[in-house]
Write a structure and sequence with these properties.
alpha+beta; eight-stranded mixed sheet; two-stranded antiparallel sheet; about 35% helix
Length: about 325
């Protein structure tokens, strides 16, 4: 493993110095769409148009319910942000579905990141999200547990990933195929991202964009630097009841690298998921959606609009 990180500070420094964690290739993205491994919002979910405007969705709270502390744990230890962000979006979406059904035993375990990162197609650091999407659609994913071919009960991004890179054993792929794999849908506007989030579907995206470790006085992240980085979007608030603009909650994969937003009413949002930050709708549309490298994980055929849980009733569980 060529880039071991021992602390969030080392991860931040590496991305600030230009680590290419997110590697966008327009040709592989176009082929992904042409092969229908992912679909545009306008093709797959036009029936959701407008459902999220002026509303909010706190999807991260469903994941926190079944996997407490998940967003602050398992900081990446190499340039594996794409696999972490994809896993975070996928786990959040499936947690919402399970929460709605009231079947907590169905959550099973946290998803693993290692197979996706091992499928990146090179021995360097970083990954093309289109390659990750193709692997997860065609093959699948694993969970945080022990398998005959390797221990994934804890983050294992070192020797195991290196051993699987370029030569993933068929038994690993066969186990991945046992897992339910949904659809990936690409929004082209911030409003479409709201519609997907309000319908219960979390996203991940890669972009050249960074923020400071502290928010501004409004509680919104301050743009700073340019990280080539992939992160999950796990909620939004477009009501303007707390913030003066629409905001999206970004879940990072660096552990607790930053400080809690200066404005964060726990009676509304619950405990702050460590490492996350709000970005304004204008920033989200320009950098996160505008990168063209954004996918929502949709776990149900037909992409229905789900009736989200009443997160206001979770304070006694999550607080």
């Amino acid at each position: 493993m060529s880039v071991p990180f021992d602390s969030p500070a080392e991860i931040v420094a590496a991305y600030q110095e230009g680590l290419p964690g997110w590697q966008f290739n327009p040709e592989t993205m176009d082929r992904l769409m042409a092969d229908r491994k992912a679909e545009r919002f306008s093709e797959a979910a036009p029936h959701l148009t407008g459902v999220g405007k002026g509303k909010m969705a706190l999807l991260w709270r469903s994941r926190e319910l079944y996997d407490p502390g998940a967003f602050g744990q398992e900081a990446q230890v190499r340039g594996s942000c794409v696999s972490h962000a994809s896993r975070n979006a996928r786990d959040t979406t499936r947690a919402v579905e399970i929460h709605i059904k009231g079947e907590p035993e169905e959550y099973f375990k946290r998803g693993a990141t290692e197979p996706t990162y091992a499928a990146r197609g090179n021995y360097g650091e970083g990954m093309d999200p289109s390659v990750a999407t193709r692997f997860e659609v065609d093959t699948g994913f694993l969970f945080r547990q022990k398998y005959p071919f390797g221990d994934l009960s804890q983050l294992n991004e070192g020797e195991l990933v290196d051993r699987w890179t370029g030569r993933m054993p068929e038994e690993v792929k066969a186990e991945c195929r046992k897992c339910h794999v949904g659809r990936w849908i690409a929004p082209t506007t911030a409003d479409q991202a709201k519609d997907l989030l309000f319908s219960g579907y979390a996203l991940h995206s890669g972009q050249n964009f960074g923020v400071a470790a502290s928010s501004d006085a409004r509680g919104i992240a301050v743009p700073r630097g340019s990280w080539s980085h992939d992160m999950a979007t796990v909620g939004y608030d477009d009501t303007r009841e707390v913030y003066p603009v629409g905001v999206f909650l970004i879940a990072n994969s660096w552990g607790c690298w930053n400080r809690r937003p200066r404005v964060w009413p726990e009676d509304r949002y619950g405990p702050w998921p460590e490492g996350s930050f709000w970005v304004s709708e204008e920033v989200y549309g320009r950098y996160f959606v505008g990168s063209r490298s954004i996918f929502a994980y949709c776990d149900v055929v037909g992409v229905p609009q789900k009736k989200l849980p009443d997160y206001g009733n979770l304070s006694n569980i999550l607080g």
